[in-house]
Write a structure and sequence with these properties.
This protein is of the alpha/beta class. Helix content is 38%, strand content 18%. It contains five helices and five strands, in the order βααβαβαββα. Strands 2-1-3-4-5 form a five-stranded parallel β-sheet, sandwiched between helices. The longest helix is centred in the N-terminal third of the chain and has 14 residues, at 27-40. The radius of gyration is 14 Å and the shape is globular. The N and C termini lie close together (9 Å).
């Protein structure tokens, strides 16, 4: 099983920014742990991070050629602004899990709305980097043998 993990803007600064919200672990360390988690569960995990909306969209489009079974995406601030990312996810018809490290529903009002939540398999929010692991595990269990 092939999984694509997409991280949006500013997540490259994990471990350096707002550690009280996002924790102390760098994105590289988070990705390494998640690759190990996927491997132990008989799957492979490809990772991608960009601060640029068009690059995230291209990674979603490329998931077709890569034969990705499902996507785990933390769109970060694009959650609240990007119809284009929503359209890309709808276009490729690859199931996806939306993950947020913080509880977006307990933060500023503008963070309460997501352009992706209504089309996601599930939204996992507010449990830090464990949210990625939970999404990967749920996806593997759901799509194994697809």
């Amino acid at each position: 099983m092939k999984i694509l993990l997409i991280n949006g803007p500013n997540l490259n600064l994990l471990g350096m920014r707002e550690s009280e919200i996002y924790g102390n672990k760098s994105l590289k360390n988070v990705e390494k742990d998640l690759i190990d988690h996927a491997t132990v569960n008989g799957s492979s995990l490809l990772t991608f991070q960009s601060n640029a909306e068009h690059e995230i969209i291209e990674s979603i489009h490329n998931a077709i050629a890569q034969k990705i079974d499902f996507i785990v995406i933390n769109p970060a601030a694009y959650t609240h602004t990007s119809i284009a990312i929503r359209d890309a996810l709808l276009a490729v018809q690859i199931p996806f899990y939306e993950v947020h490290l913080s509880d977006i529903y307990s933060r500023e009002d503008f963070r309460h709305f997501s352009y992706l939540s209504d089309i996601a398999e599930e939204v996992i929010t507010g449990i830090g980097v464990k949210g990625y692991e939970e999404a990967i595990t749920k996806g593997i269990l759901k799509y194994r043998g697809k």
